[in-house]
Amino acid sequence: MILNLLLVLLQGPTAVVPEGPIQQGRIPVGIYGEVQAPTQPTGTSRSTFARGPRVTPTGRTGPMGRIQTPIGGLVAVRGQEDNVLTGIGLVDGLAGTGDTGELAKQLLQNLLKTQNVNISLQALTSKNLAVVRVEGSLPAGIKPGRRIDVRVSTIGDATSLVGGTLTMTELTDLTGTDVYATAGGPITVGGFSAQGKGASTTKNHVTVGLLPGGGKVEREVPTRVVSDHGYIYLDVKLGQDSFGNVVKITESVNRLYPGAAETQSDGKTVKVRVPADLPESAYIAFLDSILKQEVESDNLARVVINERTGVIVMGGDVRLRPGAIAHGSIVVTIAETPEASQPGPFSGGVTENLDRTDLEVQEENNGLVVVPGAVTLREVVDVLNLLGATPRDMISILTAMADGGLLVAEIRRN
Fold first, then answer.
1. DSSP codes of every residue in 187-240
2. Distance between CA 385 and CA 405 in Å, rounded?
């Protein structure tokens, strides 16, 4: 075939193309016997940004009465905190989605040595194994033998924990010296992953799993409700930690037990004195009677925003001062379409990649909007909806309004 091609090139365009291998080969040939250049790619790629229609939720808009909240929903009893336990474990039984490095092999080798099995590192494979971090929460006062939930997450480059089983793992405190629980068993993953040579699909996060009841408590953490000096400390929970709530809790306890409660100087804790003649067996009943008391908690002027998810939460006492606002979203769309330029056969050229970029910038042209003052939560929502901004734009607007003094509220970012 090469000999016939050389004859065509030497004879020129008047030569007759011989029938046979030259027309059946991979080199494209024209009607005059000339060698044609390969067809260049003509495909294009697109990148678009679409904004869905604005949805206005409907719900109750009428005035609401005063909300009475039990003290137990506003405070946490000191000494009844959960304790975090951690450990490093090994997951086996994976369908080729495990770690590819040496870490899983070394951990498996150490595990086998505890069973008096000595195997060299080179004889082990790790494609069905994954090294994971194991974490559990030990509730206050839980007794040995009780079951707790355990969460596992990959440390190496394992792609999925679906179908895996956690080998027996010790869970220790932060010092790593005392074992408080053990964990092991099949892992529940809230998703799936399927992969082929040319495509793959994944639902939810498959490198983190849960073992419901997979942990067993081995040691109790000693806890006490009443301190050595005969006091119960009620710490106000995050999100309810206003001075008004602390004062109301103190007053409510004193109405039930005169002179028993006092507010700590930090403004976040209420100290309750236990009666000296109260037997220790009645401590829990005494505390329960306090936690069941209801108070009218403060409706805090607070705005909580999450820039990662675009979530905005407002408290009922948020206020707006009059002002003017202009906002305009900027959308930048970039599409990369690299093309490969191939030279013709025997031309002596080289293949090159040619960059092709499609860049589009779209900016909204909005004028100033006069924002009236608002003194109720419903008025605040109605005023902000006049701007027609998306939740992510609203985060920037609220931040700027707070900096400019228009928004009378505390902003917290998650």
1. PB-SSEEEE-SS-EEEES-SSEEEEEEEEEE-SPPP--SS-TTSEEEEEEPTTS
2. 19
Which residues of the chain have a pLDDT value below 50? 1, 3, 5-10, 12-25
Give CA separation, 107 vs 122, 157, 164, 208, in Å: 13, 15, 16, 19
pLDDT value of residue 78: 92
What whole-number distance in Å separates Cα of residue 249 and Cα of residue 295? 7
Q: What is the DSSP letter of 17?
A: P
Token pair 């003290």: residue: 71
The interaxial angle of helices 243-256 and 283-291, nearest 10 deg, is 130
Q: Which amino acid is at 23?
A: Q
Query: Residue 172 domain-assigned?
Result: yes
Whether residues 205 and 122 share a domain: the answer is yes
* Stated pTM of the model: 0.66
Is the four-CA dihedral 73, 74, 77, 78 of positive or negative sign?
A: positive
**How far apart are alpha carbons 154 and 84 in whole angstroms?**
18
CA-closest candidate to residue 275, choices 232, 338, 212, 329: 232
Instruction: Judge if 107 and 168 occupy the same domain.
Output: yes
119 and 163 both lie in a single domain: yes
Query: Can you tell me the distance from the alpha carbon of 120 to that of 4, in angstroms, rounded to the nearest whole number?
Result: 60
Element containing residue 182 per DSSP (H, E):
strand 179-186
Assign residue 349 a region (left: φ > 0; alpha: ψ between -120 and 50; beta: otherwise). Answer: beta
Q: Which of 25, 2, 3, 5 is nearest to 17 (CA)?
A: 5
Distance between CA atoms of residues 339 and 336, nearest Å = 10
